[in-house]
Amino acid sequence: MNETHITRIAEELDVLPGKVQAAAALLDDGATVPFIARYRKEATGSLDEVAITTIRDRLHGLRELDKRCEAILKSLAERELLTPELKTQIAAADTLATLEDIYLPYRPRRRTRATIAREKGLELLARLLLDSPAEPSLDPIAEAAAFVNEEKGVATADDALAGARDIIAETISEDARARMAMRALYSTRGVIKSKVVKGQEDPGAKYKDYFEWEEPLPTAPSHRVLAMRRGEKETFLSLKIEPPEEMALAELHRLFVVPHAADSRGGAPEPDSPAAQQLTLAVANGYKRLLAPAMTTEMWTALKRRADDEAIRVFAGNLRELLLAPPLGQKHVLAIDPGFRTGCKLVCLDEQGKLIHSDTIYPHAGEARAQAARETLRKLCRRFDIEAIAIGNGTAGRETDAFVRGLKLPAQTIIVMVNESGASIYSASEAAREEFPDHDLTVRGAVSIGRRLMDPLAELIKIEPKSIGVGQYQHDVDQGALRRALDDVVMSCVNAVGVDLNTASKQLLTYVSGFGPQLAQNIVAFRDEHGPFATRRKLTKVPRLGPKAFEQAAGFLRIRNGKNPLDASAVHPECYPVVAAIATDLGCQAKDLMRDSSLRDRIDLKRYVTEKVGLPTLRDIRAELAIPGRDPREEFEAFSFTEDINSIEDIKVGLTLSGLVTNVTAFGAFVDIGIHQDGLVHISQLADRFVRDPAEVVKVQQKVTVRVIGVDLERKRISLSMKSAPERNE
Asked: What is the pTM of this model?
């Protein structure tokens, strides 16, 4: 393990190096982030998942930097270019950009104008001009005459000077100091400029805001960067990044002309010096032809990475809130996938989410069919003891919700509209076909809607996160980075909630710490063949599930009403002996500790501290004994939209409406107000105070009250506000 990496990460996180080293060792040994955060607190000093994930990612980045260093050193050594000084510079490089700057002049290169000039023997002339621009006695024309050689293609002194300037231009463009200076200038004074491609005004109308757009690079928000990049990719926009050119040229002049003037009798360079003029021409050419394009590419790469990171952060935060939305729990549910012409597909689910009945009703196809639909719904509610009705919020959702509420069902029957984003993706998936091979897409979609109400986490993990609709330009960002971040979120949420070993789907088990698709499949197959697991320990009988996987997973699995009451808790099996010792000392059993708070109050945790089990773990054990397998999600509360608001035509400025936050972005929050068209609360309208990050104020699935401040019927845009209503003058 590289101690330099450990020290550097510890400084970045402001934690002790020992904690970072312990986390790194566990990660290298195959431990997952949730496992380390939950069950190895003594080793890491109780680092949380965020810190451990950062350690994992920074270690990966630094190790990739090391690999690149090794590859560069090997290349230089093989070509006999490696000097002690160069080796020291490479070893000291702390970023990939710095490393590549050092290596750039030595990279095997394609044939360039400078290469051709060197082949013509003009390297010495270039070096003479580069080293002596302020020498008053230097006559470039006279010096260049000595390099005229028609056989090599240098017909005149001007040809020689042109070739020398090509060499100087490339030398400057590859100089580490020049690149560092330009990188700083572009980063602080760069301006993004966007223009519409000629003739694309109408086809690219959705990018109209960027047809003539400029903004400083340092402050460009991620959503605008990604929008402009998408417009460029679709060939509607032309983009460029540039700082003030005079500032760039002045900085390069300072680096390559002024120092020599200072060395030459301590004076400033003579502006009319022929040598200085040649060098000035080469500097300008090197900047415009080579350095500026290279910096522009680098800035776009850095800007894209920054925008990606922000978009991924927003998406991951939204996904976490959505996955951890309050579950209804184990209830008899009737779920409806609404529709007008094709009718409403309905399904009845038992407490475990198992499909027990399906049907189709036509509540929006005339009074006769509506009456039949009423009778069907009432009959099914009685027959299956329906406790809740889930209605998809897609087409005909609001109308179906009003229809169901008009049935005057028992007051205790919960009626909820459910966000069905991605349900169609799931219904056509292999997982859905595998579970319901004898049912069509509409039945599978209705089942998904019902299960989302019962347990959002268990159902949503079956869907590609990008299909859920809580992201920001998710299709434009680095897909590998997005996938890794979202997988981290899903795994974190699944393990935070815990998984019922005897009812969990293969998809849900896949995200349990230490498992994966193959082990999840093996567990389900074993469960189908041998029946429910009576204990956690029986997991070791599953094919290919070894001690390491068991250690990583066991604490996150739950067995309800099993042989050992601790199997229903988050107490890890490795700590069962600790609980047994506590129970023995108190003259009771583990189940008594879970029932009797007075017994738990008598536990002296310090008595049970060992080399492996410290106070953090013991406190967790005591907390678990109090509420075994506690679900960290909030309690479910039914929600309903404002009545008599069914379409955008019903929306008027000044109305106050109930809504659900469906998506949080860098520029605001989208709110479902029950009309199939979300409204936008711009970041400036989220609160009476200044808001830097919308996530500070709202979360996905949060219930909010909003005020309509604008309606654009033509573009179907609704502007909302969560600010206090302005006081009226009497």
From this structure: 0.86
